[in-house]
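Annotated sample (chain length 188).
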Amino acid sequence: MKIVTNLLLGIGLVFGLSGCQPPPSDKPQEVQTKTWQKELQEQLPMLGHRNWILVVDKAYPLQSSSGIDYIYADENLPSVLDYVMKQLNNSTHVRPVAFTDKELSYITEQQASGVEEFRKELNKTMKGNEVQTLAHDSVFHLLDQSSKLFKVLVIKTNQTIPYSSVFLQLDCRYWDANRENQLRQRMK
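Output written by the structure step:
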């Protein structure tokens, strides 16, 4: 009888002590937020030839196309672009073909304070990469067509200089137009 009593007391003690602790699901959980850099690093291996990465100013519109994903980076555009370009330049599978808005070349410092410094930073970041200019509406046309078939990743920054967005069309790093033309000629 004493053994049974001690056993019941022991079981009661175990259940009683465990009842004093809240179940693990009741503990507050820390919210883990992904940084925009982490999101880019996760998506970059999936992006390839004909995808786009846009590093855009704060007024860039939220588009309704299902082929466009958005990340918000609460930083200035030059620092975000610098990071993106380093990631792309270190990539083994894609290289950027860069476009900027033609309008950016015509904006004066009086119209948009900081535009001169921004252009200097842009030139420094893009050094060694060809940068083409297109009228702003032409870029939207290209993106509209591309996003129907290919993913477009938009990284929206806190930049408030008009026409400062940079559009990076991804191309294959290990295959170029010259080799593609040679291949097509041999296939004829």
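Annotation: Residues 45 and 177 are 22 Å apart (CA to CA).
Annotation: DSSP finds six helices and six strands in the chain.
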